[in-house]
Inverse folding.
């Protein structure tokens, strides 16, 4: 499943990427730009814009709430997503799938403490950010659990 979110939904876009979903998002994505991108790439549009329906859009989901937690719940429910299945596999900034990185590759790029205490790293091929399982991921997992999503 692939999504395109309108520019009002940045926080939702970020959280969908946290749970591993492919999300197109950017300041250019609203109105007809959003519709074109969605059609070209076969994406489901997520929007708060009720007027979009008059622009002959492809499939779209009208997001009901202003709150990103409610928005995320709505999308997970409507699209039958498993929030934990692919969590932390995608760069939140670039939307690219992360690649595994060896310790040799990350040696000079992460703090020494992180290097000595972590074994598994991944790398974004676009922005070259390095990710590792750590407290911020744990906080995100707690956030997802707080939304009523359970691990399997
Ligand atoms: Zn990136």
């Amino acid at each position: 499943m692939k999504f395109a979110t309108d520019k009002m939904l940045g926080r939702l876009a970020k959280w969908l990427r946290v749970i591993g979903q492919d999300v197109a998002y950017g300041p250019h994505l609203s109105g007809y730009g959003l519709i074109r991108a969605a059609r070209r790439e076969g994406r489901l549009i997520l929007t708060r814009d009720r007027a979009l329906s008059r622009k002959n859009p492809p499939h779209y989901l009208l997001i009901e709430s202003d709150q990103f937690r409610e928005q995320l719940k709505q999308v997970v429910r409507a699209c039958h997503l498993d929030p934990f299945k692919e969590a932390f596999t995608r760069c939140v900034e670039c939307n690219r799938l992360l690649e595994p990185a060896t310790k040799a590759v990350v040696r000079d790029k992460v703090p020494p403490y992180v290097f000595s205490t972590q074994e598994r790293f991944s790398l974004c091929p676009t922005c070259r950010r390095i990710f590792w399982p750590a407290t911020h991921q744990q906080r995100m997992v707690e956030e997802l659990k707080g939304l009523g999503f359970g691990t399997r």
Notes: Residues 91, 93-94, 96, 124, 126-127, 129 surround zinc ion (CB under 6 Å). The mean pLDDT is 92. Strands lie at 2-5, 22-24, 44-47, 60-62, 99-101, 121-123, 130-131.
